[in-house]
């Protein structure tokens, strides 16, 4: 297998909920694999031991950490999504900002006429942009 890079997201019990939201928002969204913790396997039974999924051509992985940790996601790393339509930016913004935190409101900026930066309800940061070439 050739070298492959993917974004890894670590949750504490909500990985499957997040994955299901993300794949539902993109036409090519797909869960590629999902393995759950079984009895005595170190994590809470039924939570995600390892998952691989794809959104907008980008491969991601996710786990539910069996260990509590003193950190979570940070906006200093975001999943950046460039779309071909303002309607798609609006759709992603509406769904990803629900229950989350708007870091930069949906609007017209010098670098894109339709842009928003949000942290979703799981804490994952997203930069949503109408591709300037599509405008």
Percent helix: 10-25%
Mean pLDDT over all positions: 94
Sequence of secondary-structure elements: EHEEEEHEEE
How many helices in DSSP terms?
2
Strand-pairing-aware structural class:
alpha/beta
The largest sheet, given as strand count, sense and whether it forms a barrel, is: 4 strands, mixed
Rg over CA atoms: 16 Å
What topology, given as strand order, has the largest sheet? 1-4-3-2
Beta content comes to 35-45%
**What is the number of strand segments?**
8
End-to-end separation: 39 Å
The backbone outline, from C-alpha atoms, is globular
Low-pLDDT sequence parts: none
Structure description:
The protein has 135 residues and is α/β, with parallel strands linked by helices. It has helices at 15-25, 86-97, and strands at residues 7-11, 30-36, 48-55, 58-64, 78-83, 101-109, 112-119, 125-130. A hairpin with a 2-residue loop joins strand 6 (101-109) and strand 7. It is globular and about 55 Å long. The termini are far apart.
Topology, element by element:
Layout: E1 7-11, H1 15-25, E2 30-36, E3 48-55, E4 58-64, E5 78-83, H2 86-97, E6 101-109, E7 112-119, E8 125-130
Parallel strand pairs: 1-4, 5-8
Antiparallel strand pairs: 2-3, 3-4, 6-7, 7-8
Short description:
By secondary structure, this protein is an alpha/beta fold. It has helices at residues 15-25, 86-97, and strands at residues 7-11, 30-36, 48-55, 58-64, 78-83, 101-109, 112-119, 125-130.
């Amino acid at each position: 297998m050739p070298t492959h890079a993917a974004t890894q997201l670590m949750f504490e019990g909500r990985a499957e909920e997040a994955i299901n939201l993300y794949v539902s928002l993109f036409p090519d969204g797909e869960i590629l694999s999902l393995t759950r913790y079984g009895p005595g396997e170190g994590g809470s039974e039924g939570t995600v031991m390892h998952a691989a999924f794809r959104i907008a051509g980008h491969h991601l992985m996710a786990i539910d950490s069996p260990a509590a940790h003193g950190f979570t996601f940070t906006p200093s790393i975001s999943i950046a999504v460039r779309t071909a339509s303002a309607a798609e930016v609006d759709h992603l913004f509406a769904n990803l900002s629900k229950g989350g935190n708007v870091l930069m409101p949906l609007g017209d900026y010098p670098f894109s006429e339709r842009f928003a930066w949000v942290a979703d309800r799981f804490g994952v940061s997203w930069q949503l942009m109408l591709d300037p070439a599509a405008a």
